[in-house]
Design brief:
The complex is a heterodimer of chains A (250) and B (358).
Chain A (H helix, E strand, L loop, with lengths): L2 E5 L1 E5 L2 E7 L4 E2 L3 E5 L6 H8 L8 E5 L8 E4 L11 H10 L8 H13 L15 H13 L5 E5 L7 H18 L2 E5 L3 H7 L2 E6 L2 E7 H4 L2 H8 L1 E7 L5 E8 L1
Parallel strand pairs in A: 5-9, 5-10, 7-8, 8-9
Antiparallel strand pairs in A: 1-4, 1-6, 2-3, 10-11, 12-13
Helix pairs in contact in A: 2-4
Chain B lengths: L13 H34 L7 H9 L6 H36 L11 H15 L11 H21 L6 H25 L2 H12 L7 H20 L1 H7 L3 H6 L4 H23 L5 H13 L3 H25 L8 H19 L6
Helix pairs in contact in B: 1-3, 1-13, 2-3, 3-8, 3-11, 3-12, 3-13, 4-5, 4-6, 4-7, 4-11, 5-6, 5-11, 8-11, 12-13, 12-14, 13-14
The chains are: A alpha/beta (250), B mainly alpha (358).
């Protein structure tokens, strides 16, 4: 099973330090890890640093995967690209980077399977510009999966989705992680989603890692008070699930 | 999706990849048809001119030059063929330059003309024509094209440099380009004001754009640029296409976005500068050629790259034909005609094909 370990990593834009000295134990494959924190806490920057798109101090270790095969895949936030490309072409594009012009039958078969597994085969020949926010998010997941990542970093994948699609995507990613053994890190704002779908949580705020561990140990009234400046309780609903209830701003 | 278990083997509809294969085949067919149109246009370009020859005479002069009389051979081989082929190479260069500029700047208004690169090249050439100033003094005999090229490179790098600054948006780049157009046009006007009558005539020729001074050497140089640049773009076709999904997405696919932009901008300068140095300012092709290609073959660069070149070449070649037909016996400057021919055609495409416009 793959495992990701961060050893004292940091990142900066120019002279401004975004975060520094983030160290974790092994983040194991087969599970979902929520990366939470207030706006501008550096969650996207952390993902870019882990994916190697930004340089900085510290080392990112990946065990159980061939480092040369680019095991880490970063899925950025949806920016609503207006390229004149079909969904199928955009997924093919993700698979073919650095490869030849020729497209083999096996490569197309793989795309067919990924689109079918996400139930978006019917969108295959729609232009990207004609998709809804939710559809674009599913296409982005297809673009990430076609690269066969061992570690997938998803930057707020549910931000443009309605409630039904949010639950669908998170449920899908959880089952995918368990089935295929990949490690999925998801930047989330909805703490109830984090508690329901993610096995682990990391809290990033003020340029450092505030907490890291099992989700229910990390998301606590004390953490919510310190990081989000809110008074909150963790209650159990009638179905026995923990819920964050925010009473007000501090 | 809820009914589908993630990671399970899913029975994919085989028709999806068949539809993709059919789509790719249709795009190749479109490119082939455009190429045939280009060949017909080039043939028409060679058949038309003040001296009237039949199409069969022109074809025999092309296929077996030794078998036809000297006058016909000279007219076809030394006058009309360089002009017709120059339209093809210059059109392809300008359209390709526009296509890749629009790609790397994510801006539908980007072209060598709208971003001031043509104006910079024109000013560089005028500097040589009027003041005899060589930007690169070691090669005075090639002063005009080298002046044009170096000024175009300088303008391109300036735009690129600004585009890499934090907080600079697409709109800023367009405004900067327009500012460059005004600046270089003002400097050009100043040179025109100071120019001798003879130099002024040469500069005016520039600003109108004309293929009539085409020679085999110029055709060879512009053709050689395409031969050098196209394979370099072709090698990066997946990366360039990925850039259209946004910088972060392209980077997440493993594309070195910064390096790709710089490399592309340098190649685009080459594509934009040399044609301008030879034929003057031709504005419309670099903007519209790529848009037409985008509408008919999409933005997968494996089709978009040849599509842009063929569309640009076809536009300029048809314009060359029209410029000979408008006033019998006279050849109007091509830069004047390009917009008059291209704009109605372009609008008809936009209104019949709105879905695939930018």
């Amino acid at each position: 099973m793959v495992a990701l370990t961060l050893d004292g990593i940091g990142a900066r834009y120019g002279r401004a330090t975004v975060f520094s000295d983030i160290t974790t134990g092994p983040i194991e494959g087969g599970a979902l890890t929520a990366v939470i924190g207030p706006n501008a806490a550096g969650k996207s920057t952390l993902f870019k640093r882990i994916a190697g798109l930004l340089k900085g101090e510290g080392v990112v270790h990946v065990d159980g995967a061939d480092a040369a095969a680019r095991p880490i895949c970063y899925m950025p936030q949806d920016t609503g690209a207006n390229a004149v490309l079909t969904v199928y072409e955009s997924v093919l594009l993700a698979a073919k980077q650095g490869a030849s012009w020729r497209v083999a039958e096996d490569e197309l078969r793989e795309i067919d399977e990924i689109l079918a597994s996400l139930s978006i085969s019917d969108l295959a020949f729609r232009d990207l510009g004609a998709l809804s926010g939710g559809q674009r998010q599913l296409v982005a997941i297809a673009q990430a999966l076609v690269r066969k990542p061992k570690i997938l970093l998803m930057d707020e994948p549910t931000s443009a989705l309605d409630l039904y699609r949010q639950i669908e995507v998170l449920d899908y990613m959880r089952r995918l992680a368990k089935k295929s053994g990949i490690a999925v890190l998801i930047a989330l704002h909805d703490l109830n989603h984090a508690m329901r779908y993610c096995d682990h949580a990391m809290v990033v705020a003020s340029g450092r890692l505030i907490a890291n561990g099992p989700t229910l140990d990390v998301i606590t009234p004390a953490m919510l008070g310190e990081v989000y400046k809110v008074d909150a309780r963790i209650e159990t609903c009638t179905l026995g699930r923990p819920l964050v209830i925010v009473d007000g701003a501090r | 999706m809820a009914a589908v278990a993630a990671g399970d083997a899913v029975e994919a509809a085989p028709e999806t990849r068949r539809v993709y294969r059919a789509l790719a085949a249709r795009r190749i067919a479109i490119l082939t048809v455009l190429l045939i149109c280009l060949v017909i246009s080039v043939a028409a370009d060679m058949a038309l001119g003040p001296a009237r020859y039949s199409l069969s005479q022109v074809i025999s002069a092309v296929l077996s030059p030794a078998a036809v009389d000297v006058q016909l051979r000279v007219v076809i081989w030394d006058i009309r063929m360089p002009v017709a082929l120059m339209a093809v190479t210059v059109g392809a260069c300008l359209s390709l330059a526009g296509a890749e500029m629009q790609t790397i700047l994510a801006n539908p208004l980007a072209s060598p003309f709208t971003l001031g690169i043509s104006a910079a090249a024109g000013f560089g050439a005028a500097l040589g024509l009027v003041a005899g100033v060589a930007v690169f003094p070691a090669a005075v005999e090639y002063m005009i094209p080298i002046n044009a090229f170096l000024m175009a490179i300088a303008a391109s790098l300036f735009i690129y440099g600004v585009s890499t600054l934090r907080g600079v948006t697409v709109e800023t780049i367009v405004l900067l380009g327009i500012a460059l157009v005004f600046t270089f046009n003002a400097l050009l006007s100043l040179l025109e004001y100071l120019a001798s009558e003879q130099a002024l005539a040469a500069v005016v020729f520039w600003t109108m754009g004309s293929l009539t001074k085409a020679t085999w050497t110029k055709v060879a140089v512009t053709g050689a640029i395409l031969v050098i640049v196209v394979p370099l773009f072709a090698r990066k076709s997946w990366a360039l296409t990925a850039l259209r999904l946004g910088d972060d997405k392209a980077a997440s696919f493993g594309v070195n976005v910064r390096a790709l932009r710089l490399e592309t901008m340098l190649l685009v300068s080459l594509l934009a500068a040399i044609p301008v140095a030879f034929v003057g300012t031709i504005g419309f092709i670099g903007l519209v050629g790529p848009h037409i290609a985008r509408m008919v073959v999409g933005e997968d660069q494996r089709f978009f790259l040849p599509g842009s070149m063929i569309c640009g070449a076809l536009l300029l070649s048809v314009t060359s034909v029209v410029s000979k037909m408008l006033i019998p016996g006279a050849i109007l400057p091509i830069g004047v005609i390009t917009a008059l021919v291209g704009v109605p055609f372009f609008f008809s495409l936009i209104f019949t094909n709105r879905r695939r416009a930018w």
